[in-house]
Protein: hydroxymethylglutaryl-CoA lyase
Organism: Orbilia brochopaga
Amino acid sequence: SSTEHVKIVEVGPRDGLQNEKTIVPLSTKISLIERLSHTGLSVIEAGSFVAPKWVPQMADSSSILAHLAKHPPQPSQHISYPFLVPNIKGLDAALDPSHPASEIAIFASASEGFSQRNLNCSVDESLARFAPVVSRALDAGVKVRGYVSMVIACPYSGPTPPAAVVDITRKLLDMGCYEVSLGDTTGVGTPHTVDVLIKALVAAGIPVDKLACHFHDTYGQAIVNCMVGLANGVRVFDSSVAGLGGCPYAKGATGNVATEDLVYFLHSVGMNTGVDLERLSEVGAWISDSIGRKNNSKVGPALLAK
Ligand code: HMG
Ligand code: MG
């Protein structure tokens, strides 16, 4: 029906920028978050408190958190600005006493190969490391979102059995994550493999309203894969303005599905996102231009050319 709401989690300022080789100026990152804040989006992932030796591009996340606290964008709706946290050191930064983040995200992998490369530990070790992060965050009143990466296949470990995704998803929910985002990190999913995965999760008793789809568009399948998620009852989708992005530790990973394309698609099937597509398209054009990247959205440039 035309009143059904879909939540979009904009990950451009984090997933979209983390892989940029040239350091994007702090002022550009802040301007991106501010501009996105006036498009109607309700969740904007703003950075990550990871080791700067691993992801130098995210090294200024503390400044972003501080800026958002001092000069909060003033849109009409409430916006959540989550930050990625890999360990207690990252949580300490996120919980800066003078301006703690209100939401964090932890990120595990469904495959051992990617866990080693992205977190420098096994899947089980990562879960053991995340447990105290989540409990301390929840004690501090901070919401925690969970990610599972490589949900379809992994460039290092091969195809991912849906049972492995079920297992990690359940553990993240049991730990206290309010929602788990299913990462097709390298965009190798297809409508069939995504359908099999989501049906396996639902059949295993994972409530579909706890799931989000986080699809990268490496092979151009992200939108159809989102449609499969939608058909299976998922109502939360992650995307990146202008399709920016990629993961530095995932061989061959390109950007997320473009938020402009996702919003256009969702509106076309009668879903409400709260997002002003024209404003969003302007932000996509601006950030692509600012960092000298091709705009990977199809819809944004088409709409602005009209
Ligand atoms: P490690 O090297 O095993 O960690 O890395 P360590 O504890 O041995 O520390 C090494 C150094 O890092 C030390 O500094 C620590 O202090 C420092 P030194 O003594 O050498 O100067 N350090 C930190 N500094 C700042 N903040 C921290 C922190 N932790 C340690 N939090 C670690 C382990 C987890 C830290 C590392 O592997 C890491 O940072 N990984 C993050 C990688 C990453 O950010 N990947 C991209 C995000 S995930 C993603 O994109 C997928 C997703 O989009 C979903 C999808 O698409 O599937 C979410
Ligand atoms: Mg990602």
Q: What stands out?
A: The chain has twelve helices and eleven strands.
